[in-house]
Amino acid sequence: MDTIATISLARPREEIAGELGRSFAEYGFAIVRDHTISQELIEKADTLARQFFALSPEAKHEYRIEGGGGARGYTPFGTEIAKDAAVHDLKEFWHVGRTLAEGHPLSAYMQPNIWPREIDGFRETFEQLFRAFEETGALILSAIALHLGLDADWFEDSVKDGNSVMRLLHYPPLPHDAPDGAIRAAAHGDINTITLLLGAEEAGLELQDRQGNWVPVSPPPGALAVNVGDMLDRLTNGRLRSTTHRVVNPSGEAAKRSRYSMPFFLHFRPDFLIEPLPNCTKPGEPAPEPILAHDFLMQRLREIGLA
Ligand SMILES: O=C(O)CCC(=O)C(=O)O
Ligand SMILES: [Fe+2]
Asked: Which Pfam family would be a valid example here (predicted)?
């Protein structure tokens, strides 16, 4: 396989499992089209995200949750810093999490959502998009399960009421006073299970291949870029790879434009034990220690300045 696979989710899972798995094993990424998120919903969400980021800095700061680690609401420009990076990313974002019923046993792990009062339909649209991402994510996970030789529903319980987060991202036009070396999103691996990304048709996203080359990831409009996160990498003992990726700065005219994207970070449930799968380990060979998904997340959030 010499390129990232493009996969139609309209095909039976049994048929796509191999191709998807090979792309994840080699590149950690696949392009997924014909997914279950409607174009109408994507466009609505995109419009509302743009409306939110167009609010004044003062209005947006109202939605920053002090001490909340950016888990919900607004995180301003210049907050997140990739692990081992020297300067902050050139981005601002809004996080939507799961809405849990009152008294839900997992509510200790998840902060409640907040919503911008200025934007009509924001809550409804993004709650709907959250559900749609989950539905598509479940289909992709069942194909991954088949690829790994597991039952198609193996992941169902592992992600039920998981701590998934949808991120609305805005990379503003390149500021003239950006610190040396600052880029839109510095090289990083995603922490979670799998990420489903909308909006990456606007250039800039790149993954690092095994040889260390940076390879552009350019899905067609409306398609998803899907990648393996560190938690799935750990569960599979590296058989499916969480690859380092970044968003580079545009040059020329594109530098005067904003870039918007929407990743959905699909997470295991906080009390899921990430323990390498037996068929991904060999006796006598080293494998990662089992760790609870919540503990793993906390460890990683501290490293990126968000916890
Ligand atoms: O904006 C993008 O295209 C990718 C963003 C990303 O990798 C992230 O937020 O983890
Ligand atoms: Fe990422």
From this structure: DIOX_N
Tell me the C-alpha distance between 53 and 183, whole Å.
19
What per-residue confidence (pLDDT) applies to 8? 98
Lookup: tokens for 107 = 């509510």
CA gyration radius for the chain?
A: 19
For ligand 1, say whether the CB of 205 is within 6 Å of any of its atoms: yes
> Is there an atom of ligand 1 within 6 Å of 185 CB?
yes
Q: Sign of the C-alpha dihedral, residues 100, 161, 43, 39? A: negative
> What is the distance in A from the centroid of ligand 1 to the CA of 58?
25
Q: Which of 88, 300, 113, 110 is nearest to 192 (CA)?
A: 300
Question: According to the model, what pLDDT value does residue 78 have?
Answer: 79
Q: What is the number of the ligand 1 atom nearest to the C-alpha of 259?
A: 1
Domains of the chain: 6-303 (2.60.120.330)
ipTM of the complex: 0.99
End-to-end CA distance of the chain: 39
Ligand 1 atom with the shortest distance to the CA of 227? 7
